Amino acid sequence: MTSKHTAEYLPEVPTEISSILQGGYNHPLLREWQHERLLNKKMFIFPLFISDIPDEETLIPSLPNIKRFGINKLIPYVSKLVSKGLKSVILFGVPLKEGVKDSEGSAADDPQGPVILAIKALKLAFPDLYIMCDVCLCEYTSHGHCGVLFEDGSINTKQSVRRIAAVAVNYAKAGANCVAPSDMIDGRIKAIKQGLIDNDLAHKTFLMSYAAKFSGSLYGPFRDAACSQPGKGDRKAYQLPSGGKGLARRALIRDLNEGTDGVIVKPSTFYLDIVKDASIICQDYPICCYHVSGEYAMLHAAAEKGIVDLKSIAFESHYGFLRAGAKLIISYFTPEFLDWLDEPTPV
Ligand code: PBG
Ligand code: ZN
Predict the structure, then answer these.
(1) Considering every ligand atom, which ligand is closest to the CA of 294?
(2) 83 C-alpha to center of ligand 2: Å?
(3) What single-letter DSSP state applies at residue 64?
(4) Which has more confidence, 206 or 4?
(5) Ligand 1: which residue has its CA nearest to atom 10?
(6) pLDDT of residue 16
(7) Which residue positions are annotated as catalytic (predicted)?
(8) Coil, strand, or helix at residue 142?
(9) How confident is the model at residue 2 (pLDDT cuts 50, 70, 90)?
(10) Of 197, 230, 204, which is closest to residue 215 (Cα–Cα)?
(11) Alpha-helical runs (H) found in 143-219
(12) For the residues 102-114, what does the mean pLDDT come to?
């Protein structure tokens, strides 16, 4: 006889449970103990966009909470972050004045241009702040590409490398602690290192190569902020295709051999395997990942739609970078993390 309360099949109650993992993470403190590494303020590098309009302070619509500053507005803004524990920034110059851009990106290292003025002002105001400079020409070239071009629009490698090395050396001369070339044009690491050596700057300048930089769809908001959209074409001939794992590994090895002091992998979320590869190939070097503008904007958009909680997803994504092997993170979330890391961790 069957009743509706009696199942036909009753499994035997197991007498031996072989493994209970939950004993290891049932308390918030335990959950932090389970992390191989925890986020801390020192691993964050904050991108700053600096224009040549001295009094500018403009929100970038596609990059929530991020502003572009003129030199006169920069120090008060950074001051608040330094008092919360900001240790490092990476500078991007944005020439907005008419007639500044040319085919060689001459304005990149103009002594009166935004980057060199900002290096000097930041050093004076915050002697302990670690100042990194993105080195590229795309913000300064009339065509919007990262190097110097031949007439047919292809990259003139020798001229590009010469120009990029000169810009890097001039940033270091102005007092930059670190120069980070993001162009991906072959040969520039060797040329920059040699330039730093020739100018007696190599012993006090960190050369951080964007060694594995992929071209793709995640840089749009940055290009709005930096006005660096290429006029014609794209960057696919000098930045890696998204499936190019082997190319990334070769670029990492090549840049180590050319004398880089550290490497950047960019973007981050969709390239965690490359971060992991870098942590093995470059295990004796600081490895940085760049959570780029599109990744940041996507998380904000998802939070606005109610799909995710912003703070939780920011921690989850940044813990992913640590798991993959990153030691440093360039992140637009830095100001938030300077507050969040004073609060209980959401684990
Ligand atoms: C300049 C540069 C870019 C980024 C860092 N350095 C833009 C680009 O390559 O188009 C992108 C960073 C971001 O999207 O946040 N070459
Ligand atoms: Zn560029």
Answers:
(1) 1
(2) 31
(3) T
(4) 206
(5) 219
(6) 84
(7) 213, 266
(8) coil
(9) very low
(10) 230
(11) 157-174, 188-198
(12) 97
Q: What is the residue-wise DSSP string for 283-323? A: TTS-EEEEE-HHHHHHHHHHHHTTSS-HHHHHHHHHHHHHH
Can you list the domains of the chain with their CATH numbers? Answer: 39-340 (3.20.20.70)
Would you name the residues annotated as active-site residues? Answer: 213, 266
**Polymer length of the chain:** 347
Is a pLDDT exceeding 90 seen at residue 3?
no
Residues with CB under 6 A from ligand 1: 134, 136, 138, 146, 182-183, 219, 222-223, 228, 292-293
Q: SS3 for 222-289, per residue? A: HHHHHCCCCCCCCCCCCCECCCCHHHHHHHHHHHHHCCCCEEEEECCHHHHHHHHHHHHHCCCCCEEE
Q: Assign 6 a pLDDT band (cuts: 50, 70, 90).
A: low
Any idea which residue has 């004398």 for tokens? 259
227 vs 340: which has the higher pLDDT: 340
Q: For residues 163 and 105, what is the distance between their CA atoms, to the nearest angstrom?
A: 8
Res 18: pLDDT: 87
Residue with tokens 């060199």: 116
For ligand 2, the distance from its centroid to the CA atom of residue 214, given in whole angstroms, is 12
Which tens digits make up the pLDDT trace of 214-273? 999 999 999 999 988 888 888 999 999 999 999 999 999 999 999 999 999 999 999 999
Share of the chain above pLDDT 70, in %: 98
pLDDT digits (tens, 9 = 90+) for 66-76: 999 999 999 99
Distances (CA, A) of 293 to 21, 213, 344: 37, 14, 27
Asked if the bond preceding 14 is cis, omega within 30° of 0, the reply is no
Q: At 301, list the tokens.
A: 């958009």
Residue 73 Cα, ligand 2 centroid: separation in angstroms? Answer: 25
| Contacts for 140 with CB less than 8 Å, ≥ 6 apart | 93, 95, 100, 101, 102, 105, 106, 107, 108
Q: Is 178 annotated as a binding residue?
A: no
